[in-house]
Amino acid sequence: MRVFLGIDGGQSSTMALIAREDGRVIGAGRSGPCNHISTDEAAAKFSRVVADCVDQACRSASLDPADVSFTSVCCGMSGGPGDKETLIRNLLRTEYLSVVTDGEIALTGALSGKPGIIVIAGTGSICYGRNAAGKLVRAGGWGYIFGDEGSAFDIVRQALRAALRFEEGWGPATELHATLLEACREGTANAVLHQFYSEVWPRSRVAQLAGLVDSAAERGDAVARAILEQAGQSLSTLAACVREQLFESEDDVRISFAGGVFRSRFVRQRFQSLIELSGLECVAPDHNPAGGALLEAFQLAGLKVTLSGIPEMK
């Protein structure tokens, strides 16, 4: 049986999908974050995460991880693909291999390989677009210091800033202050700030607190809601920037979205309303990024399929 592998390696988690030649997904696996490999220790962690993810997918597909050979593999990797291909080749046996950015597979999956734009907002944020001629353009993705507007990390950063302003007496009242103190088991927002500067709170852990901001907004906290709506506006701005570079003003353009930030109805509604106000179509993704990686793997082998059986893995 010919089998195909797609991997979505992100800042928060890594997902692998295995499919048969007819596009039916038969195995899935999930492991930890898979991002930069700037040190030997980080490279070893990267290899462990990818191996664990693929092993899980193989076992769920009733394949022997030690013996499996793939027809084609596509890996979409956060933090850039250039320094990861050699490590992946050492881990997997495959006839065809492509290592690209995680944004490219998200775009392919969301629109089933058709032209359009994808805005991704998870731990970080970035936007990719591809036109009918195959030209690819990106915007954002500058990292948590210089960019990542609208991301989960940015939402928590804005929430902490609001808590600090309230604590110092020059910002409006917000339950985000008490919420962050409780989540971090600290007595002041200033102490939370220092926690976030420590190694105990890496970016991925800070980003996980974005759900608390959404919960506060659902309970009616105006500051929390404003933060989320600003995130939606920032993400729609990325889409507008990519559209201007790739498409003519009269073109019909489909814009989709991916990433945990869009689980917030405040972010999603603000994003969708701004996209639709500009006369464009905002659509839910056809497939998740791992599904996009699978489609790219099939295309790499010269095959065009319709995927089926992709599991929901939260």
The fourth-level CATH homologous superfamily of the largest domain is ATPase, nucleotide binding domain
What's the structural domain tally? Answer: 2
Taking all residues together, what is the mean pLDDT?
Answer: 91
Amount of beta strand: 15-25%
General shape: globular
CATH class of the largest domain: Alpha Beta
Q: What letter string, H or E per element, gives the SSE order?
A: EEEHEHEHEEEHHHHHHEHEH
Q: Oligomeric form of this entry?
A: single chain
* Number of DSSP strand runs: 10
Cα-atom radius of gyration:
20 Å
Span from first to last CA? 29 Å
The CATH architecture of the largest domain would be 2-Layer Sandwich
Explain what you see.
The protein has helices at residues 40-60, 85-91, 102-110, 152-168, 176-184, 189-196, 203-207, 210-218, 222-246, 265-277, 289-300; strands spanning 3-9, 14-20, 25-31, 70-77, 94-101, 116-121, 125-130, 136-140, 254-258, 281-282. The strands form 2 sheets. It has a 5-stranded mixed sheet with strand order 3-2-1-4-5. A 5-stranded mixed sheet has the order 8-7-6-9-10, sandwiched between helices. It folds into 2 domains: 3-112 and 287-300, 2-Layer Sandwich (Nucleotidyltransferase, domain 5), CATH 3.30.420; 114-285, Nucleotidyltransferase, domain 5. The longest helix has 25 residues, at 222-246. With 314 residues, the protein is an alpha/beta fold.
